[in-house]
Design brief:
The protein is mostly helical and 311 residues long. The chain has a single domain (6-298), classed as Orthogonal Bundle (ABC transporter involved in vitamin B12 uptake, BtuC), CATH 1.10.3470. It has 13 helices and no strands. 41% of the residues are buried.
């Protein structure tokens, strides 16, 4: 076994950003949902359908960006169906979300049968000119897929939108007290549907990123629980975009650390190393749950609760 060299540490940091981007994108989408008062447990299913939609589009068109667009559209479409059920028909949000997740897993497996052996065109290599060649920080930070940087910018922009813009204040008002927002003349249901579909689109981009960039192939069930991790991260982050990034990169770092340890021949059962990211997530949630008042203060007051305009 050998220690970490600067080169391997740089690669570990780069892989952490790459892995964290998946759950960061999905978590930011779910955060938008939940800020509007809607809890969507279907992230895993949406990401799976988006992964096969993005991969199939990438194989047939040769364009990753069309693949990301297809993934976003698939996620938004599934989220729109979910939103119609829970917002207008007032179905139970928990049960409907679980059904969406199961439906997405089955649909993606069925559609993806013919794509299991397919290959994408040669993968492009990204680098920021002038910065990518810097010692250590170049390979660690400046040779990432553009979506990594877009995700960071999105988190910053979403934080500003929620706290500083009129639209963000309206969205938060709908999540805190839809009755009061309705009394002030805001269209609560359309606002919630727009938030749900926007969140679904971001989950879709996250799913497409898995099959197009993170592990450029299609395998049934390849999201592997990242949708559930994204759901947990919204609570970990207390519904704040900046903290979502922190939690996502923490998960990405632990995920990549297991591969680093395996590559260095650490004598630990591989099954234990594989479960490390999920154990770390559970531990963090347990620690946060020890202070329920803190969660209650930060959580949108109407989260998971139906809204009846005529009530």
């Amino acid at each position: 076994m050998t220690g970490l060299t600067p080169e391997s540490l740089a690669l570990l940091l780069a892989a952490t950003l790459n892995a964290g981007t998946v759950v960061a994108l999905a978590s930011l989408g779910l955060l938008i949902n939940e800020r509007a008062g809607v809890l969507n447990l279907g992230a895993e299913g949406m990401m799976l359908v988006a992964a096969i939609a993005g991969f199939a589009t990438g194989v047939n068109t040769g364009s990753d960006w069309l693949g990301f667009a297809a993934g976003a559209a698939a996620g938004a479409l599934m989220a729109g169906a979910f939103g119609a059920l829970v917002i207008w028909l007032n179905t139970n949000q928990y049960a409907t979300g679980l059904a969406l997740s199961l439906f997405g897993a089955g649909l993606s497996a069925f559609v993806g049968i013919s794509y299991t052996q397919q290959r994408l065109p040669e993968r492009p290599h990204f680098a920021i000119p002038g910065l990518a060649d810097l010692p250590f920080v170049g390979p660690a930070l400046f040779r990432q897929h553009p979506l990594v940087y877009i995700t960071i910018a999105l988190a910053i922009g979403l934080g500003w939108f929620l706290m500083r813009s009129r639209g963000g204040l309206v969205l938060r008002a709908v999540g805190e007290s839809p009755e009061s927002a309705h009394a002030l003349g805001y269209a609560v249901r359309p606002i919630r549907l727009l938030a749900v579909m926007t969140g679904g689109a971001l989950c879709g981009v996250a799913g497409a990123y898995i099959s197009l960039a993170y592990t450029p192939l299609w395998v049934e069930g390849m999201v592997a629980g990242k949708g559930w991790i994204a759901l947990a991260l919204t609570t970990f982050a207390t519904w704040r975009p900046g903290r979502v990034l922190l939690g996502a990169y923490l998960f990405g770092g632990v995920t990549m650390l297991q591969f680093q340890l395996q590559g260095q021949g650490v004598q630990i059962p591989s099954q234990f190393l594989t479960m490390l990211p999920y154990v770390a997530t559970i531990v963090v949630l347990v620690l946060i749950s020890r202070n329920p008042t803190w969660i209650r203060i930060n959580m949108p007051a109407s989260l998971g609760k139906p809204f009846h305009p005529g009530a």
